[in-house]
Design brief:
Chain lengths: ~280, ~210
């Protein structure tokens, strides 16, 4: 068993080390600085940080009530809903992107029943169009909202799983005591359950964030990989490879690894600090 | 007085039906029975934590059958204490009064008064992690008593305590209940505990009170 574990760890470590050694031996310092300073790569980093943060926040907001309901209540159809929530995880990423494209751009729900009406894309444009700065167009497909939606669709499913497991591990007794002391359900949830679930919430947020950063398939189909506009780091890797710049792709990949590690360490350190809340 | 008339309530896969009993005002009723026989379900129904299928629950002359848990004026002490993991002992004691909108001055007076009565002044700033079983149950008792309930429901509060702590807690619960004129319903499967603490004993067997 230890042998199998070691082999798998060697594979993970080997992949990362291969990237590092490939960059060291093939990319000069000036070239490295050039890639990092590239205008499109810098835009891509900024858009990645922005979209992943929005996705993580949205995922936690959605995962909190769904995870809680699935953990605490039994209701008709629960098994079906539970299974449906895993669909974004098990579907091929390109299918997720394609389905989003059709839902938001081609076939809104009312058209399923033969009722004519605007697509979500058109509605979004009408609502937000007047508020857009000059030269910018409001919309979803092939724009930043599509990047966020594509990331969110998959990341939220992971966040929901994490929150459900978190609530499963918290005894409902404490919130029942809070109810007898005068809390209504939402007060008991926010005053007692949420503070106890805090570590699970931060894990769900981190998982959603890192998952969103790694997302590519749905973004490719739904948002496209338009340089400087819908380009996030995962699309940068693809774009660099597609123009034959393997060195650039490896450097961007290493940036993604570094960002993921920094985020994980930051959250772990913050978690350690918040764990003191339980012990002091 | 705690009065339960023809109470029917679902307990997992089975139903407890037609349960009736009374605990007179100021007395300590003990409900006994085997594990899984539905004692906790009855207690939860009285506390408003379990939906009542039929029957009537009256607390101190008030029909509370369909009232929310927080409107019943009950103090609830669960089996393992179920302390709020992120709050200090002081915050746990102040929780109920705060939720019920007491003035800060009143809360600041009530918390040390309770802590002294229960002998937990020295742990007021500590969090539940690392508290002993006896300390946890004292805090849980204090948290329930903080809002001055007329009725106290205790769900096997002493089952996890060692013998020495157990005796001390029995004494403490008895004195607190008598001193404050509280009507209590206490669940246990220990005959010895029931004999030590009960004014009135009930035995639940096969879904029926004996």
């Amino acid at each position: 068993m230890i042998g199998i574990a070691v082999m798998y760890l060697l594979l993970i470590g080997g992949m990362l080390m291969a990237d590092v050694f490939y960059s060291v031996s093939n990319v000069g310092w000036e070239e490295f600085k050039g890639i990092l300073g590239d205008e499109y790569i810098q835009k891509s980093v900024k858009l990645t940080l922005f979209t992943c943060t929005v996705t993580a926040i949205m995922s936690v907001i959605v995962a909190l009530p769904i995870g809680y309901l699935l953990s605490r209540y039994d209701f008709r159809g629960k098994t079906v809903i539970d299974a449906a929530l895993d669909i974004p995880i098990v579907l091929p990423p390109l299918v997720v992107g394609l389905s989003l494209l059709i839902l938001f751009n081609k076939m809104p729900p009312w058209e399923w029943f033969g009722i004519d009406g605007p697509s979500f894309e058109e509605m979004f444009g009408k609502i937000f169009g007047p508020f857009m700065p000059e030269g910018m167009e409001a919309g979803i497909t092939y724009k930043v909202p599509a990047v966020i939606l594509a990331q969110f669709t998959v990341a939220a499913a992971f966040a929901v799983r994490t929150m459900r497991n978190t609530f499963d591990q918290i005894s409902p007794r404490a919130e029942q005591v809070a109810l007898t002391l005068g809390c209504n359900r939402s007060q008991a949830f926010f005053r007692v359950v949420v503070p106890e679930a805090w570590r699970g919430i931060s894990t769900a947020g981190t998982l959603a964030w890192t998952r969103a950063m790694g997302e590519f398939g749905p973004i490719l189909v739904f948002a496209g990989t338009i340089r400087g506009r819908t380009e996030v780091l995962s699309s940068s890797v693809f774009l660099e490879i597609s123009i034959g710049n393997l060195e650039g792709a490896v450097i961007v990949s290493l940036m993604m690894v570094t960002i993921a590690v920094v985020v994980l360490i930051a959250v772990r350190m913050w978690d350690r600090g918040s764990r003191k809340k339980y012990v002091l | 007085m705690i009065s339960v008339e023809q109470l029917s309530v679902r307990a997992g896969d089975f139903c407890i039906e037609g349960i009736s009993f009374e605990v007179p005002t100021g007395e300590h009723g003990v409900l006994m029975g085997k594990t899984g026989c539905g004692k906790t379900t009855i207690l939860e129904a009285i506390c408003g934590l379990k939906e009542v299928l039929s029957g009537k629950i009256t607390l101190m002359g008030r029909d509370v059958t369909h009232l929310r848990a927080g409107e019943r004026g009950i103090g609830f002490v669960p089996q393992d204490g179920a302390l709020f993991a992120t709050m200090s002992v002081r915050q746990q004691l102040a929780f109920g009064p705060k939720v019920q909108g007491w003035a800060k001055k009143e809360i600041d007076k009530r918390v040390p008064e309770l802590a002294e009565e229960l002998g937990i002044e020295s742990i007021l700033e500590r969090k539940p992690f690392g508290l002993s079983g006896g300390e946890r149950q004292r805090v849980a008792l204090g948290r329930a008593l903080a809002v001055r309930p007329k009725v106290l429901c205790l769900d096997e509060p002493l089952s996890a305590l060692d013998e020495e702590t157990h005796e001390g807690m029995v004494e403490l619960i008895r004195s607190v209940v008598k001193e404050h004129g509280i009507t209590a319903l206490h669940i246990t499967h220990s005959r010895r505990e029931a004999d030590l603490i009960a004014d009135k004993e009930f035995f639940l067997d096969d879904g029926k009170l004996v």
